[in-house]
Amino acid sequence: MNFLTHPIPISWYLLLSAALFSLGVVGFLIKRNLITVFMSIELMLNAVNLSFVAFAHEWHAVKGQIFVFFVMMVAAAEAAVGLAIIIAVFRARSTLAVDRIDLMKL
Amino acid sequence: MHLILFFLFAGCCLAGAVNLLLQSHPINSALSLIVVMTSLAVLYLLLGAEFLAIAQIIVYAGAVMVLFTFVVMLLNAGREERTLGSRSALAIGFPAAVAILAVIATVILRAQGLSSAGVQQGITTTSDLSRVLFHELLLPFEVTSVLILIAILGAVALARQGNGDGNGERTAGK
Predict the structure, then answer these.
(1) Which residues lie closer than 8 Å to B114 by C-beta, 6 or more apart?
(2) Which structural domain, as residue segments, surrounds residue B11?
(3) Under CATH, which number does the domain A8-93 receive?
(4) B74 and chain A in contact, CB less than 8 A
(5) Count of CB atoms within 10 A of residue B91's CB?
(6) Same domain, B72 and B5
(7) pLDDT tens string for chain A (106 positions)?
(8) How many domains is chain B partitioned into structurally?
(9) Can you give the pTM of this predicted structure?
(10) Is the CB of residue B163 less than 8 Å away from at least one CB of chain A?
C-alpha cells in the first residue's frame, strides 16, 4: 500500500512536459502537412502549460494557473486566425503540402 | 491511486503524441491530439487545478480541436506525401531533437528543492482563482476579450470568400 499512497515527484510532470515539447518540435520539423504542423505547435503549447501548472502547484502560486488560463485564450485566438490563414493559402494554392508553399506571395 | 492515474494518463499522453507523429492522415493526427489534451486535463486534476482541467477539456479538446477537424474535413486534406529531405538533415535532426530533450531533462533532474505532489495538499478552487483574476488581473482579463474580438474579425476577413477570385477587383479598386 505504500506504493499506492506514494506522492508523485513534481519532476516527473516536468519530464513529461519536456518529452511532449520535444515530440512537438520533432513533429513540427518532420510533418509535411500544413495542418499537422499547426497541431504540433498546439502540442508544444500544451506541454508548456503542463509545466506551468506543475510549478504553480509546487509553489502554491495561483498566478501560475492564471497564466495558463491566458495562454489558453491566446491559443484559441491563434488557432482561429491560423486556420483561417490555412484556408486562405489552400484557396490560393489548392495544396497543403509545405514543400509546395514556398512563396510569401499568395 | 494517484501514482496509477499518473502513469496511465502520462502513458496516454506520450502514446497520443507519438501517434500524432506516425500517422500520415491529418484526421488521425487530430484525433490523437484530442487524446493528448484529454489526458493532460486529468493530469491537471492530479495537480489540483480543477478549473484548468475543465477549461482544457472545453476549450482545447472541445473548441480548438473541433475547429481543426472541421478544417481538415473542409479542405479534404488527404494523406500527406513523404518527402524526406537530405540524408544529412535526417542524420543531424534526430540527434538534435534528442539533445533538446536531454538538455531539458538534465536541467530538471539537477534542480534542487522540488517537492512531491499530493492532491490533498493543494487544490486551487475556482473561487481562489477568480479572486485573483477579477481583483488584481482585471485589466489583462478585459484586454483579452478585445484580443479575441480582433482574432474573430481577422479570421472572418482572412477566410472570407472572394479574396482571390470574383471579389478581388473590388478590393483592388479601393
Answers:
(1) A9, A10, A11, A14, A58
(2) 1-78
(3) 1.10.287.3510
(4) yes
(5) 10
(6) yes
(7) 455 567 788 888 999 999 999 999 999 988 888 899 999 999 999 999 999 999 988 888 888 899 999 999 999 999 999 999 999 888 888 888 888 887 777 6
(8) 2
(9) 0.86
(10) yes
